[in-house]
Amino acid sequence: MSAPWRSTPIPGAFLTGRIPATDARGSLTKILGAGDEAPGGAFAVREVFWSQSARGVFRGLHVQLPPRSTRKLVFVTSGAVRDFLLDLRRGSPTEGLLWETELPPVSGGLLVPDGCAHGFEVVGDGASMVYLQEDFHSPEHDGGVHYGSAGVALVASEPLLSERDRALTSLAAFESPFTFGPA
Q1: Which CATH number fits domain 5-17+43-166: 3.60.110.10, 2.60.120.10, 3.40.50.300, 3.10.150.10?
Q2: What is the dihedral of CA 181, 40, 142, 130, to 10 degrees?
Q3: Has 131 been annotated as catalytic?
Q4: Catalytic status, residue 62
Q5: With contact defined as beta carbons under 8 Å apart, do 134 and 46 qualify?
Q6: Taking the complete model, does pTM exceed 0.85, yes or no?
């Protein structure tokens, strides 16, 4: 049995709960199965990433640009993060909206729609995240928006960022190739 999906303020973005099977050994949770429907249609995993990050790390706000744009399902396996979505879809009722949620390991996952940038800040001693993507990562289609220009206020006074993330374009300068359509 898969967990139910809950809507978020951003159309097409959904949180999934966690329905673990538990016993004396611990727990096992089904995230997504081949016959399961995700909001917006079947979710076909093409690539899986696993990140491990230290306290104070911020990754994002990343998006893969057309024609290689993709939905992804992200979840935390250990630690806790502040997770961020930024709606970059022209014509969306939440275009330009930054939405934040906490994702501890017991929270389930977050379905990130095509056209929304994603990022997270590690707020505990460290965190591990898994990303299930519907398309393969394509470095030549990497894009994103600088977190500060989108309104992300980081907890860490000296956040750990990659050079790529420091150099991302501002939200005001980002020319979105995404348009909003039915979810």
Answers
A1: 2.60.120.10
A2: 160
A3: yes
A4: yes
A5: yes
A6: yes
